[in-house]
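User: Please predict the structure of the protein below. I'd like the answer in structure-token form so I can feed it into my own downstream comparison script.

Assistant: Understood. Taking the following sequence of 177 residues as input:
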Amino acid sequence: MESEGPPESESSEKSIFFSQQEEEEEDDNEEEESKEAEETATINPLLPPALTGDVEGLQKIFEDPENPHHEQAMQLLLEEDIVGRNLLYAACMAGQSDVIRALAKYGVNLNEKTTRGYTLLHCAAAWGRLETLKALVELDVDIESLNFQEERARDVAARYSQTECVEFLDWAGKELT
């Protein structure tokens, strides 16, 4: 009588194949988890509180000597990406005005430019972050600063149809003259 299943040798070959395939999948998963852990480990510890508006969290890092990132807090704050943007630019894009005010107390240069001449004010204007623009103007940033295209923050706001920002920057320009 014939067996209904595959011959014994074929069945054992399949089980060997599937067990090897499972091992390879496990190895792939472990590699992915390792990469994710590396990426997580390299995230600037100031970034999450800066993006979420956690001013207290930022202050703890800067002011608590027991914090593991206290010693390099200023270096982490000023660390730049390939186009010259530091953590302050991320806070501007996220509209975190309180974070900008808090970090200004640590003596950062709020008029610093990227490699293409964009300032924090240009960034906030492009993203339509009116409250952030107001905070930056209160902190005495240069509203006449030009980027590589000879644009002021007001011009960038106009280019991106950020009407409220244009109106505010027009008003601020008149107030300062």
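That's the full token string. The chain has one domain: 43-176.
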